[in-house]
Batch of 4 targets.
Target 1
Amino acid sequence: MNGPKHLCADSDGNILIADTDNHRVLRYDPKTETSSLVAGTKKGSAGFDGPSENMELFQPHGVQISQKGELFITDSFNNRILKIVK
Protein backbone atom coordinates (compact mmCIF):
# COMPACT_ATOMS: atom_id res chain seq x y z
CA MET A 1 0.00 0.00 0.00
CA ASN A 2 0.98 3.57 -0.53
CA GLY A 3 -0.77 6.18 1.56
CA PRO A 4 -3.73 4.28 3.04
CA LYS A 5 -6.19 6.88 4.33
CA HIS A 6 -9.38 5.23 5.53
CA LEU A 7 -10.84 1.82 6.20
CA CYS A 8 -14.13 0.19 7.13
CA ALA A 9 -15.42 -3.34 7.68
CA ASP A 10 -18.06 -5.12 5.62
CA SER A 11 -20.67 -7.53 6.98
CA ASP A 12 -18.34 -10.51 6.37
CA GLY A 13 -15.54 -9.03 8.48
CA ASN A 14 -13.40 -8.00 5.51
CA ILE A 15 -11.63 -4.65 5.70
CA LEU A 16 -11.96 -2.19 2.82
CA ILE A 17 -9.03 0.20 2.49
CA ALA A 18 -8.68 3.42 0.53
CA ASP A 19 -5.13 3.01 -0.86
CA THR A 20 -4.89 6.66 -1.80
CA ASP A 21 -1.55 7.06 -3.52
CA ASN A 22 -2.03 3.84 -5.52
CA HIS A 23 -5.45 5.17 -6.68
CA ARG A 24 -7.38 2.06 -5.66
CA VAL A 25 -9.57 0.43 -3.03
CA LEU A 26 -8.61 -2.96 -1.62
CA ARG A 27 -10.48 -5.64 0.32
CA TYR A 28 -8.41 -7.37 2.99
CA ASP A 29 -9.61 -10.73 4.32
CA PRO A 30 -8.15 -11.20 7.81
CA LYS A 31 -9.05 -14.91 7.81
CA THR A 32 -6.85 -15.70 4.81
CA GLU A 33 -4.54 -12.67 5.18
CA THR A 34 -5.02 -11.83 1.50
CA SER A 35 -6.10 -8.69 -0.28
CA SER A 36 -7.96 -8.19 -3.54
CA LEU A 37 -8.77 -5.24 -5.76
CA VAL A 38 -12.22 -3.70 -5.38
CA ALA A 39 -11.82 -0.59 -7.52
CA GLY A 40 -9.15 1.42 -9.26
CA THR A 41 -6.61 0.57 -11.91
CA LYS A 42 -4.60 3.77 -12.20
CA LYS A 43 -4.85 7.51 -11.70
CA GLY A 44 -7.64 8.90 -13.84
CA SER A 45 -11.40 9.30 -14.15
CA ALA A 46 -12.49 6.78 -16.80
CA GLY A 47 -14.28 3.46 -16.58
CA PHE A 48 -16.97 4.18 -14.03
CA ASP A 49 -19.73 2.73 -16.26
CA GLY A 50 -18.20 -0.77 -16.16
CA PRO A 51 -16.88 -3.15 -13.54
CA SER A 52 -15.42 -1.41 -10.50
CA GLU A 53 -12.15 -3.30 -10.97
CA ASN A 54 -11.67 -1.44 -14.29
CA MET A 55 -12.44 2.09 -13.13
CA GLU A 56 -9.82 4.75 -12.62
CA LEU A 57 -9.62 6.71 -9.37
CA PHE A 58 -7.65 9.78 -8.39
CA GLN A 59 -6.64 9.62 -4.74
CA PRO A 60 -9.60 7.95 -3.05
CA HIS A 61 -9.66 9.10 0.57
CA GLY A 62 -12.65 7.36 2.13
CA VAL A 63 -14.70 4.18 1.98
CA GLN A 64 -17.97 3.32 3.71
CA ILE A 65 -20.39 0.40 3.52
CA SER A 66 -24.10 1.21 3.81
CA GLN A 67 -26.60 -0.97 5.66
CA LYS A 68 -27.68 -2.27 2.23
CA GLY A 69 -24.12 -3.40 1.45
CA GLU A 70 -23.36 -0.62 -1.04
CA LEU A 71 -19.80 0.64 -1.08
CA PHE A 72 -19.27 4.40 -1.23
CA ILE A 73 -15.88 5.79 -2.27
CA THR A 74 -14.82 9.41 -2.02
CA ASP A 75 -12.72 9.95 -5.14
CA SER A 76 -11.09 13.14 -3.94
CA PHE A 77 -9.27 14.66 -6.89
CA ASN A 78 -12.08 13.71 -9.29
CA ASN A 79 -14.49 15.57 -6.98
CA ARG A 80 -17.01 12.73 -6.90
CA ILE A 81 -18.55 10.11 -4.66
CA LEU A 82 -19.02 6.70 -6.23
CA LYS A 83 -21.51 4.04 -5.22
CA ILE A 84 -20.66 0.44 -6.00
CA VAL A 85 -23.39 -2.16 -5.76
CA LYS A 86 -22.51 -5.85 -5.98
Target 2
Amino acid sequence: MTADPKIAKLQTDFQNLSEIASALNTASDHLTRSVAVLDEALKRLNIGLAVWVNFAIREVDVNEPMLYDIDQIGYYKVNGTWGLAIRHIWGDEGADWEKEEGPWLFNDASRELRVRAVDKIPEVITELTKVTLQTTKRVQEKTEKVVELAEAITQVTVATGKGKSLTLAERVAAGQKSLTGKLSDLAGPGKLGSVPARDTEEGSK
Protein backbone atom coordinates (compact mmCIF):
# COMPACT_ATOMS: atom_id res chain seq x y z
CA MET A 1 0.00 0.00 0.00
CA THR A 2 1.41 3.36 -1.03
CA ALA A 3 1.76 5.86 1.81
CA ASP A 4 -0.24 9.07 1.61
CA PRO A 5 2.13 11.86 0.47
CA LYS A 6 0.51 14.31 2.88
CA ILE A 7 1.08 11.99 5.81
CA ALA A 8 4.68 11.41 4.76
CA LYS A 9 5.27 15.17 4.51
CA LEU A 10 3.68 15.72 7.93
CA GLN A 11 5.99 13.11 9.46
CA THR A 12 9.04 14.71 7.85
CA ASP A 13 8.00 18.20 8.97
CA PHE A 14 7.39 17.02 12.52
CA GLN A 15 10.81 15.34 12.63
CA ASN A 16 12.42 18.59 11.44
CA LEU A 17 10.40 20.56 13.98
CA SER A 18 11.57 18.29 16.77
CA GLU A 19 15.21 18.85 15.88
CA ILE A 20 14.75 22.62 15.51
CA ALA A 21 12.81 22.86 18.77
CA SER A 22 15.62 21.09 20.59
CA ALA A 23 18.13 23.56 19.16
CA LEU A 24 15.83 26.48 20.08
CA ASN A 25 15.51 25.30 23.67
CA THR A 26 19.27 24.86 23.95
CA ALA A 27 19.87 28.38 22.62
CA SER A 28 17.17 29.80 24.91
CA ASP A 29 18.68 28.11 27.96
CA HIS A 30 22.09 29.52 27.04
CA LEU A 31 20.56 33.02 26.80
CA THR A 32 18.87 32.58 30.16
CA ARG A 33 22.13 31.56 31.85
CA SER A 34 24.03 34.42 30.24
CA VAL A 35 21.50 37.01 31.41
CA ALA A 36 21.58 35.50 34.91
CA VAL A 37 25.35 36.01 35.02
CA LEU A 38 24.94 39.61 33.88
CA ASP A 39 22.19 40.20 36.45
CA GLU A 40 24.41 38.88 39.21
CA ALA A 41 27.26 41.16 38.14
CA LEU A 42 24.94 44.19 38.14
CA LYS A 43 23.47 43.21 41.50
CA ARG A 44 26.93 43.20 43.08
CA LEU A 45 27.34 46.85 42.02
CA ASN A 46 24.36 47.71 44.26
CA ILE A 47 23.27 50.56 41.97
CA GLY A 48 19.58 50.63 42.83
CA LEU A 49 18.58 52.90 39.92
CA ALA A 50 15.94 52.19 37.28
CA VAL A 51 16.35 52.83 33.54
CA TRP A 52 14.32 51.89 30.46
CA VAL A 53 15.19 51.63 26.76
CA ASN A 54 12.68 51.21 23.93
CA PHE A 55 13.04 48.15 21.72
CA ALA A 56 9.67 48.24 19.92
CA ILE A 57 7.48 51.25 19.11
CA ARG A 58 4.13 50.59 17.52
CA GLU A 59 2.34 53.16 15.40
CA VAL A 60 -0.97 53.91 17.10
CA ASP A 61 -2.65 56.72 15.17
CA VAL A 62 -0.88 59.23 12.94
CA ASN A 63 -3.62 61.74 13.79
CA GLU A 64 -2.97 61.28 17.53
CA PRO A 65 0.77 61.92 18.01
CA MET A 66 0.45 61.89 21.80
CA LEU A 67 -0.62 58.25 21.82
CA TYR A 68 2.12 55.65 22.29
CA ASP A 69 2.52 51.87 22.49
CA ILE A 70 6.03 50.73 23.43
CA ASP A 71 7.95 47.65 24.54
CA GLN A 72 10.92 48.41 26.78
CA ILE A 73 13.87 46.62 28.31
CA GLY A 74 15.59 48.09 31.32
CA TYR A 75 17.05 47.65 34.76
CA TYR A 76 14.32 47.56 37.39
CA LYS A 77 13.22 46.12 40.72
CA VAL A 78 10.54 43.46 40.24
CA ASN A 79 9.01 41.79 43.31
CA GLY A 80 11.94 42.88 45.44
CA THR A 81 14.63 41.74 42.98
CA TRP A 82 16.78 44.05 40.85
CA GLY A 83 17.62 42.86 37.37
CA LEU A 84 17.17 43.23 33.65
CA ALA A 85 13.46 43.56 33.02
CA ILE A 86 10.91 43.89 30.21
CA ARG A 87 7.59 45.73 30.10
CA HIS A 88 4.89 46.88 27.69
CA ILE A 89 3.47 50.38 28.19
CA TRP A 90 0.85 52.34 26.32
CA GLY A 91 -0.95 55.59 26.95
CA ASP A 92 -1.71 59.17 25.98
CA GLU A 93 0.73 61.91 26.90
CA GLY A 94 -1.89 64.57 26.16
CA ALA A 95 -4.48 63.04 28.47
CA ASP A 96 -1.76 62.11 30.99
CA TRP A 97 -2.63 58.43 31.41
CA GLU A 98 -0.58 55.27 31.02
CA LYS A 99 -1.12 51.56 31.38
CA GLU A 100 1.47 48.86 31.84
CA GLU A 101 1.82 45.16 31.26
CA GLY A 102 4.61 43.75 33.35
CA PRO A 103 7.30 44.46 34.24
CA TRP A 104 8.82 41.01 34.26
CA LEU A 105 12.38 40.07 35.08
CA PHE A 106 14.05 39.29 31.76
CA ASN A 107 14.08 35.52 32.19
CA ASP A 108 10.41 35.52 33.27
CA ALA A 109 9.20 37.29 30.13
CA SER A 110 7.95 35.45 27.08
CA ARG A 111 10.55 33.97 24.77
CA GLU A 112 9.40 36.24 21.95
CA LEU A 113 9.93 39.38 23.99
CA ARG A 114 13.32 38.19 25.20
CA VAL A 115 14.53 37.47 21.68
CA ARG A 116 13.36 40.88 20.47
CA ALA A 117 14.80 42.73 23.45
CA VAL A 118 18.21 41.10 23.86
CA ASP A 119 19.95 43.31 21.27
CA LYS A 120 19.19 46.36 23.42
CA ILE A 121 21.02 45.11 26.52
CA PRO A 122 24.20 47.12 25.68
CA GLU A 123 22.06 50.28 25.49
CA VAL A 124 20.63 49.49 28.92
CA ILE A 125 24.15 49.31 30.35
CA THR A 126 25.05 52.61 28.64
CA GLU A 127 21.93 54.32 29.97
CA LEU A 128 22.52 52.89 33.45
CA THR A 129 26.08 54.26 33.41
CA LYS A 130 24.80 57.70 32.41
CA VAL A 131 22.10 57.80 35.08
CA THR A 132 24.50 56.53 37.75
CA LEU A 133 26.98 59.30 36.92
CA GLN A 134 24.27 61.96 37.04
CA THR A 135 22.94 60.64 40.33
CA THR A 136 26.44 60.52 41.83
CA LYS A 137 26.97 64.20 41.00
CA ARG A 138 23.62 65.15 42.55
CA VAL A 139 24.34 63.17 45.72
CA GLN A 140 27.77 64.82 46.03
CA GLU A 141 26.23 68.29 45.65
CA LYS A 142 23.54 67.50 48.23
CA THR A 143 26.15 66.06 50.59
CA GLU A 144 28.21 69.26 50.43
CA LYS A 145 25.14 71.28 51.42
CA VAL A 146 24.34 68.92 54.29
CA VAL A 147 27.97 69.14 55.51
CA GLU A 148 27.75 72.94 55.49
CA LEU A 149 24.48 72.79 57.41
CA ALA A 150 25.92 70.34 59.93
CA GLU A 151 28.97 72.57 60.49
CA ALA A 152 26.76 75.62 61.00
CA ILE A 153 24.58 73.79 63.51
CA THR A 154 27.68 72.49 65.31
CA GLN A 155 29.03 76.02 65.66
CA VAL A 156 25.73 77.21 67.11
CA THR A 157 25.66 74.26 69.50
CA VAL A 158 29.20 74.96 70.72
CA ALA A 159 28.47 78.66 71.17
CA THR A 160 25.26 77.88 73.06
CA GLY A 161 27.13 75.41 75.24
CA LYS A 162 29.66 78.09 76.26
CA GLY A 163 26.96 80.56 77.30
CA LYS A 164 24.53 78.14 78.89
CA SER A 165 23.02 78.77 82.34
CA LEU A 166 24.85 77.28 85.30
CA THR A 167 23.23 74.64 87.43
CA LEU A 168 22.60 75.29 91.15
CA ALA A 169 25.66 73.26 92.15
CA GLU A 170 27.81 75.15 89.64
CA ARG A 171 26.51 78.50 90.96
CA VAL A 172 27.20 77.46 94.59
CA ALA A 173 30.73 76.35 93.70
CA ALA A 174 31.35 79.59 91.83
CA GLY A 175 29.99 81.61 94.77
CA GLN A 176 32.25 79.83 97.24
CA LYS A 177 35.28 80.48 95.07
CA SER A 178 34.38 84.17 94.76
CA LEU A 179 33.84 84.51 98.54
CA THR A 180 37.19 82.84 99.27
CA GLY A 181 38.89 85.25 96.91
CA LYS A 182 37.32 88.26 98.59
CA LEU A 183 38.32 87.07 102.08
CA SER A 184 41.88 86.61 100.88
CA ASP A 185 41.92 90.18 99.64
CA LEU A 186 40.56 91.50 102.95
CA ALA A 187 43.23 89.58 104.89
CA GLY A 188 45.99 91.56 103.20
CA PRO A 189 48.01 94.44 104.79
CA GLY A 190 45.88 97.38 105.95
CA LYS A 191 42.69 95.42 105.68
CA LEU A 192 41.07 92.84 107.92
CA GLY A 193 44.44 91.61 109.28
CA SER A 194 45.31 95.08 110.73
CA VAL A 195 42.07 95.64 112.63
CA PRO A 196 42.49 95.20 116.47
CA ALA A 197 40.76 92.19 117.95
CA ARG A 198 38.66 94.28 120.34
CA ASP A 199 37.35 96.46 117.56
CA THR A 200 36.35 93.35 115.72
CA GLU A 201 34.62 92.02 118.83
CA GLU A 202 32.87 95.34 119.33
CA GLY A 203 31.69 95.31 115.80
CA SER A 204 30.25 91.87 116.32
CA LYS A 205 28.12 92.96 119.27
Target 3
Amino acid sequence: MLSLKEAMSERCTRVKTDYKELLKRAHEKFPPELLKKGRFEMPVFQSYPVGMRTIVRNFGNVAEALRRDPQHLLKFLTKEMATAATIESGRAIFQGKFPNQTLQNLLGRYAERFVVCPVCKSYDTKIVKERRLFFLTCEACGARSSVPTV
Protein backbone atom coordinates (compact mmCIF):
# COMPACT_ATOMS: atom_id res chain seq x y z
CA MET A 1 0.00 0.00 0.00
CA LEU A 2 1.25 3.49 -0.92
CA SER A 3 1.62 6.18 1.64
CA LEU A 4 -0.43 9.33 1.24
CA LYS A 5 2.67 11.32 0.25
CA GLU A 6 3.63 8.82 -2.47
CA ALA A 7 0.07 8.66 -3.81
CA MET A 8 -0.15 12.45 -4.06
CA SER A 9 3.24 12.63 -5.79
CA GLU A 10 2.18 9.99 -8.34
CA ARG A 11 -1.10 11.81 -8.99
CA CYS A 12 0.66 15.18 -9.47
CA THR A 13 3.05 13.61 -11.99
CA ARG A 14 0.13 12.11 -13.93
CA VAL A 15 -1.77 15.44 -13.91
CA LYS A 16 1.30 17.32 -15.19
CA THR A 17 1.73 14.81 -18.01
CA ASP A 18 -1.96 15.02 -18.95
CA TYR A 19 -1.81 18.82 -18.92
CA LYS A 20 1.26 18.89 -21.17
CA GLU A 21 -0.36 16.46 -23.61
CA LEU A 22 -3.57 18.54 -23.74
CA LEU A 23 -1.59 21.74 -24.21
CA LYS A 24 0.38 20.16 -27.06
CA ARG A 25 -2.83 19.00 -28.80
CA ALA A 26 -4.42 22.46 -28.44
CA HIS A 27 -1.27 24.12 -29.79
CA GLU A 28 -1.38 21.89 -32.90
CA LYS A 29 -4.91 23.10 -33.71
CA PHE A 30 -3.95 26.79 -33.84
CA PRO A 31 -3.84 28.39 -37.29
CA PRO A 32 -0.19 28.75 -38.43
CA GLU A 33 -0.44 32.54 -38.90
CA LEU A 34 -1.18 32.99 -35.18
CA LEU A 35 1.99 31.15 -34.21
CA LYS A 36 4.30 33.54 -36.04
CA LYS A 37 6.65 35.33 -33.67
CA GLY A 38 7.53 38.32 -35.88
CA ARG A 39 6.87 41.82 -34.67
CA PHE A 40 4.88 44.24 -36.72
CA GLU A 41 6.81 47.23 -37.97
CA MET A 42 4.90 50.35 -38.96
CA PRO A 43 5.40 50.99 -42.69
CA VAL A 44 7.01 54.26 -43.74
CA PHE A 45 5.63 56.55 -46.44
CA GLN A 46 8.02 57.45 -49.27
CA SER A 47 6.85 60.89 -50.32
CA TYR A 48 8.23 63.76 -52.34
CA PRO A 49 6.88 67.15 -53.45
CA VAL A 50 6.20 67.96 -57.10
CA GLY A 51 5.15 71.57 -57.54
CA MET A 52 2.17 72.16 -55.25
CA ARG A 53 1.48 68.42 -54.85
CA THR A 54 2.84 65.67 -52.62
CA ILE A 55 3.22 62.20 -54.06
CA VAL A 56 3.39 59.10 -51.87
CA ARG A 57 4.95 56.48 -54.11
CA ASN A 58 4.37 53.43 -51.86
CA PHE A 59 0.81 54.21 -50.76
CA GLY A 60 -0.59 50.87 -51.98
CA ASN A 61 2.15 48.93 -50.20
CA VAL A 62 1.51 50.76 -46.92
CA ALA A 63 -2.22 50.04 -47.11
CA GLU A 64 -1.46 46.40 -47.88
CA ALA A 65 0.94 46.15 -44.92
CA LEU A 66 -1.79 47.51 -42.64
CA ARG A 67 -4.30 45.15 -44.31
CA ARG A 68 -6.70 48.00 -45.03
CA ASP A 69 -8.49 49.26 -48.12
CA PRO A 70 -6.39 52.03 -49.75
CA GLN A 71 -9.55 54.12 -50.24
CA HIS A 72 -10.29 53.97 -46.48
CA LEU A 73 -6.76 55.12 -45.62
CA LEU A 74 -6.90 57.85 -48.29
CA LYS A 75 -10.24 59.12 -46.98
CA PHE A 76 -8.82 59.39 -43.45
CA LEU A 77 -5.70 61.24 -44.60
CA THR A 78 -7.59 63.69 -46.83
CA LYS A 79 -9.97 64.59 -44.01
CA GLU A 80 -7.15 65.04 -41.51
CA MET A 81 -5.11 67.19 -43.91
CA ALA A 82 -8.17 69.03 -45.30
CA THR A 83 -7.12 68.49 -48.89
CA ALA A 84 -8.01 66.48 -51.97
CA ALA A 85 -6.18 63.38 -53.18
CA THR A 86 -6.31 60.59 -55.73
CA ILE A 87 -4.80 57.13 -56.10
CA GLU A 88 -3.05 56.28 -59.37
CA SER A 89 -1.31 52.92 -59.86
CA GLY A 90 -0.47 52.34 -56.20
CA ARG A 91 0.60 55.89 -55.37
CA ALA A 92 -1.33 58.73 -53.79
CA ILE A 93 -1.24 62.31 -55.03
CA PHE A 94 -2.20 64.98 -52.48
CA GLN A 95 -2.98 68.59 -53.34
CA GLY A 96 -0.49 70.70 -51.37
CA LYS A 97 2.98 70.31 -49.91
CA PHE A 98 3.16 68.10 -46.82
CA PRO A 99 6.32 67.01 -45.01
CA ASN A 100 6.87 63.27 -44.69
CA GLN A 101 6.81 63.56 -40.88
CA THR A 102 3.24 64.91 -41.01
CA LEU A 103 2.17 61.95 -43.13
CA GLN A 104 3.88 59.52 -40.74
CA ASN A 105 2.18 61.08 -37.70
CA LEU A 106 -1.21 60.76 -39.40
CA LEU A 107 -0.45 57.16 -40.33
CA GLY A 108 0.26 56.48 -36.65
CA ARG A 109 -3.09 58.00 -35.69
CA TYR A 110 -4.82 55.92 -38.34
CA ALA A 111 -3.22 52.76 -36.98
CA GLU A 112 -4.31 53.61 -33.42
CA ARG A 113 -7.94 54.09 -34.45
CA PHE A 114 -8.42 51.56 -37.23
CA VAL A 115 -5.73 48.87 -36.98
CA VAL A 116 -4.50 48.17 -33.42
CA CYS A 117 -6.68 45.96 -31.21
CA PRO A 118 -7.65 47.96 -28.10
CA VAL A 119 -7.61 44.79 -25.96
CA CYS A 120 -4.36 42.99 -26.83
CA LYS A 121 -2.60 45.69 -28.93
CA SER A 122 -2.18 43.29 -31.87
CA TYR A 123 -2.07 44.47 -35.49
CA ASP A 124 -3.79 41.27 -36.70
CA THR A 125 -7.20 42.87 -37.14
CA LYS A 126 -9.79 43.44 -39.82
CA ILE A 127 -12.71 45.82 -40.21
CA VAL A 128 -16.05 44.09 -40.59
CA LYS A 129 -19.27 45.85 -41.61
CA GLU A 130 -22.51 44.67 -40.03
CA ARG A 131 -25.56 46.51 -41.29
CA ARG A 132 -24.56 50.17 -40.91
CA LEU A 133 -21.88 49.72 -38.24
CA PHE A 134 -18.18 48.90 -38.54
CA PHE A 135 -16.35 46.68 -36.08
CA LEU A 136 -12.65 46.02 -35.53
CA THR A 137 -12.26 42.26 -35.14
CA CYS A 138 -9.00 40.97 -33.70
CA GLU A 139 -7.73 37.72 -35.16
CA ALA A 140 -5.34 37.18 -32.24
CA CYS A 141 -7.66 37.48 -29.23
CA GLY A 142 -11.11 37.53 -30.85
CA ALA A 143 -12.14 40.90 -29.41
CA ARG A 144 -14.64 43.08 -31.26
CA SER A 145 -14.89 46.82 -30.84
CA SER A 146 -16.75 49.50 -32.71
CA VAL A 147 -14.83 51.69 -35.15
CA PRO A 148 -15.59 55.37 -35.74
CA THR A 149 -16.61 56.40 -39.22
CA VAL A 150 -14.08 58.23 -41.36
Target 4
Amino acid sequence: MDSADAEIAGLLAAGRYDRAFDRIVPAFRDRVFRLSLTLLKDRAAAEDAAQESLVKVWKALPCFDGRAALGTWIYAITRNTCLMELRKRRPTVSLDDPYSPEAQVVATSIATGPAADPEHDNLLRLVETLPANQQQAVRLFYLEDRSYDAVAEQLGLPLGTVKNLLFRARKRLMQLAQLPEEEAA
Protein backbone atom coordinates (compact mmCIF):
# COMPACT_ATOMS: atom_id res chain seq x y z
CA MET A 1 0.00 0.00 0.00
CA ASP A 2 1.52 3.32 -1.02
CA SER A 3 1.34 6.47 1.11
CA ALA A 4 -1.72 7.86 -0.74
CA ASP A 5 -3.62 4.61 -0.20
CA ALA A 6 -2.59 4.57 3.46
CA GLU A 7 -3.78 8.15 3.89
CA ILE A 8 -7.12 7.35 2.22
CA ALA A 9 -7.51 4.22 4.35
CA GLY A 10 -6.89 6.28 7.48
CA LEU A 11 -9.49 8.85 6.46
CA LEU A 12 -12.03 6.11 5.73
CA ALA A 13 -11.35 4.42 9.06
CA ALA A 14 -11.94 7.77 10.78
CA GLY A 15 -15.23 8.21 8.92
CA ARG A 16 -13.96 11.27 7.02
CA TYR A 17 -15.52 10.28 3.72
CA ASP A 18 -15.48 13.79 2.18
CA ARG A 19 -11.73 14.13 2.66
CA ALA A 20 -11.10 10.55 1.54
CA PHE A 21 -13.08 11.15 -1.65
CA ASP A 22 -11.09 14.34 -2.26
CA ARG A 23 -7.96 12.12 -2.30
CA ILE A 24 -9.55 9.27 -4.28
CA VAL A 25 -10.61 11.33 -7.30
CA PRO A 26 -7.16 12.59 -8.36
CA ALA A 27 -5.54 9.26 -7.48
CA PHE A 28 -7.98 7.07 -9.46
CA ARG A 29 -9.69 9.31 -12.07
CA ASP A 30 -7.33 8.38 -14.93
CA ARG A 31 -7.37 4.66 -14.16
CA VAL A 32 -11.18 4.66 -13.95
CA PHE A 33 -11.38 6.44 -17.31
CA ARG A 34 -8.86 4.10 -18.99
CA LEU A 35 -10.73 1.03 -17.78
CA SER A 36 -14.03 2.52 -18.96
CA LEU A 37 -12.55 3.31 -22.37
CA THR A 38 -11.09 -0.17 -22.65
CA LEU A 39 -14.43 -1.80 -21.93
CA LEU A 40 -16.74 0.59 -23.78
CA LYS A 41 -14.46 1.57 -26.68
CA ASP A 42 -16.22 4.93 -26.97
CA ARG A 43 -14.69 8.08 -25.49
CA ALA A 44 -17.97 9.87 -24.66
CA ALA A 45 -19.49 6.75 -23.11
CA ALA A 46 -16.26 6.13 -21.18
CA GLU A 47 -16.29 9.67 -19.78
CA ASP A 48 -19.90 9.20 -18.65
CA ALA A 49 -19.18 5.78 -17.16
CA ALA A 50 -16.08 7.05 -15.35
CA GLN A 51 -18.07 9.89 -13.82
CA GLU A 52 -20.91 7.55 -12.87
CA SER A 53 -18.40 5.13 -11.35
CA LEU A 54 -16.87 7.84 -9.19
CA VAL A 55 -20.35 8.90 -8.04
CA LYS A 56 -21.03 5.27 -7.07
CA VAL A 57 -17.70 5.17 -5.21
CA TRP A 58 -18.70 8.33 -3.34
CA LYS A 59 -22.08 6.88 -2.36
CA ALA A 60 -20.58 3.54 -1.32
CA LEU A 61 -17.62 4.87 0.69
CA PRO A 62 -19.35 4.28 4.05
CA CYS A 63 -19.77 0.62 3.03
CA PHE A 64 -16.09 0.09 2.15
CA ASP A 65 -14.90 -2.52 4.64
CA GLY A 66 -11.29 -2.91 3.54
CA ARG A 67 -11.55 -6.62 2.71
CA ALA A 68 -10.21 -5.77 -0.76
CA ALA A 69 -7.65 -3.14 -1.68
CA LEU A 70 -9.20 0.25 -2.40
CA GLY A 71 -8.04 0.14 -6.03
CA THR A 72 -9.57 -3.29 -6.51
CA TRP A 73 -12.85 -2.12 -5.02
CA ILE A 74 -12.94 0.95 -7.28
CA TYR A 75 -11.97 -1.22 -10.27
CA ALA A 76 -14.88 -3.58 -9.54
CA ILE A 77 -17.36 -0.70 -9.30
CA THR A 78 -16.07 0.71 -12.60
CA ARG A 79 -16.15 -2.66 -14.35
CA ASN A 80 -19.71 -3.31 -13.17
CA THR A 81 -20.82 0.17 -14.27
CA CYS A 82 -19.37 -0.43 -17.74
CA LEU A 83 -20.90 -3.89 -17.99
CA MET A 84 -24.30 -2.43 -17.14
CA GLU A 85 -23.79 0.17 -19.89
CA LEU A 86 -22.91 -2.57 -22.36
CA ARG A 87 -26.06 -4.50 -21.41
CA LYS A 88 -28.14 -1.38 -22.06
CA ARG A 89 -26.70 -1.17 -25.58
CA ARG A 90 -28.09 -4.55 -26.64
CA PRO A 91 -29.12 -5.50 -29.25
CA THR A 92 -26.19 -4.44 -31.35
CA VAL A 93 -25.08 -5.30 -34.83
CA SER A 94 -22.40 -7.95 -34.85
CA LEU A 95 -19.08 -7.04 -36.40
CA ASP A 96 -18.69 -10.74 -37.21
CA ASP A 97 -20.66 -10.04 -40.39
CA PRO A 98 -17.94 -8.68 -42.69
CA TYR A 99 -20.58 -7.03 -44.91
CA SER A 100 -22.26 -4.99 -42.19
CA PRO A 101 -21.71 -1.21 -42.44
CA GLU A 102 -20.14 -1.18 -38.97
CA ALA A 103 -17.62 -3.88 -39.91
CA GLN A 104 -16.74 -1.99 -43.09
CA VAL A 105 -16.03 1.19 -41.08
CA VAL A 106 -13.80 -0.73 -38.66
CA ALA A 107 -11.97 -2.52 -41.47
CA THR A 108 -11.41 0.75 -43.33
CA SER A 109 -10.13 2.58 -40.25
CA ILE A 110 -7.74 -0.28 -39.48
CA ALA A 111 -6.47 -0.40 -43.05
CA THR A 112 -6.08 3.35 -43.59
CA GLY A 113 -5.81 4.94 -40.16
CA PRO A 114 -2.52 6.64 -39.29
CA ALA A 115 -0.62 4.93 -36.51
CA ALA A 116 2.03 6.47 -34.29
CA ASP A 117 3.32 3.00 -33.43
CA PRO A 118 2.05 0.44 -35.96
CA GLU A 119 3.35 -2.58 -34.01
CA HIS A 120 1.65 -1.44 -30.80
CA ASP A 121 -1.59 -0.66 -32.64
CA ASN A 122 -1.49 -4.05 -34.35
CA LEU A 123 -0.92 -5.78 -31.02
CA LEU A 124 -3.89 -3.95 -29.48
CA ARG A 125 -6.07 -5.04 -32.41
CA LEU A 126 -4.94 -8.62 -31.87
CA VAL A 127 -5.74 -8.36 -28.13
CA GLU A 128 -9.24 -7.18 -29.03
CA THR A 129 -9.83 -10.47 -30.88
CA LEU A 130 -9.32 -12.47 -27.68
CA PRO A 131 -12.25 -13.57 -25.51
CA ALA A 132 -13.30 -10.86 -23.02
CA ASN A 133 -11.82 -12.58 -19.95
CA GLN A 134 -8.44 -13.00 -21.69
CA GLN A 135 -8.54 -9.37 -22.89
CA GLN A 136 -9.10 -8.14 -19.33
CA ALA A 137 -6.28 -10.29 -17.96
CA VAL A 138 -3.85 -9.18 -20.69
CA ARG A 139 -4.70 -5.50 -20.27
CA LEU A 140 -4.29 -5.62 -16.50
CA PHE A 141 -1.15 -7.76 -16.46
CA TYR A 142 0.75 -6.34 -19.41
CA LEU A 143 -0.67 -2.87 -20.11
CA GLU A 144 -1.32 -1.81 -16.51
CA ASP A 145 1.64 -3.80 -15.17
CA ARG A 146 -0.34 -5.56 -12.42
CA SER A 147 0.88 -8.66 -10.61
CA TYR A 148 -0.78 -12.06 -11.04
CA ASP A 149 -2.28 -11.69 -7.57
CA ALA A 150 -3.65 -8.20 -8.31
CA VAL A 151 -5.19 -9.38 -11.59
CA ALA A 152 -6.78 -12.35 -9.83
CA GLU A 153 -8.19 -10.12 -7.11
CA GLN A 154 -9.50 -7.51 -9.54
CA LEU A 155 -11.15 -10.06 -11.81
CA GLY A 156 -12.44 -12.08 -8.86
CA LEU A 157 -10.79 -15.24 -10.18
CA PRO A 158 -8.44 -17.83 -8.66
CA LEU A 159 -4.73 -17.26 -9.32
CA GLY A 160 -4.44 -20.44 -11.40
CA THR A 161 -7.30 -19.32 -13.63
CA VAL A 162 -5.58 -15.98 -14.29
CA LYS A 163 -2.31 -17.73 -15.17
CA ASN A 164 -4.24 -20.05 -17.49
CA LEU A 165 -6.01 -17.09 -19.16
CA LEU A 166 -2.68 -15.35 -19.73
CA PHE A 167 -1.07 -18.54 -21.06
CA ARG A 168 -3.93 -19.10 -23.51
CA ALA A 169 -3.91 -15.43 -24.51
CA ARG A 170 -0.14 -15.49 -25.22
CA LYS A 171 -0.52 -18.69 -27.22
CA ARG A 172 -3.40 -17.26 -29.25
CA LEU A 173 -1.59 -13.96 -29.84
CA MET A 174 1.46 -15.85 -31.09
CA GLN A 175 -0.77 -17.79 -33.49
CA LEU A 176 -2.42 -14.59 -34.69
CA ALA A 177 0.91 -12.83 -35.11
CA GLN A 178 2.38 -15.98 -36.70
CA LEU A 179 5.47 -15.87 -34.53
CA PRO A 180 7.34 -18.97 -33.41
CA GLU A 181 7.00 -19.44 -29.65
CA GLU A 182 10.74 -18.95 -29.11
CA GLU A 183 10.60 -15.41 -30.58
CA ALA A 184 7.57 -14.37 -28.54
CA ALA A 185 9.05 -15.35 -25.16
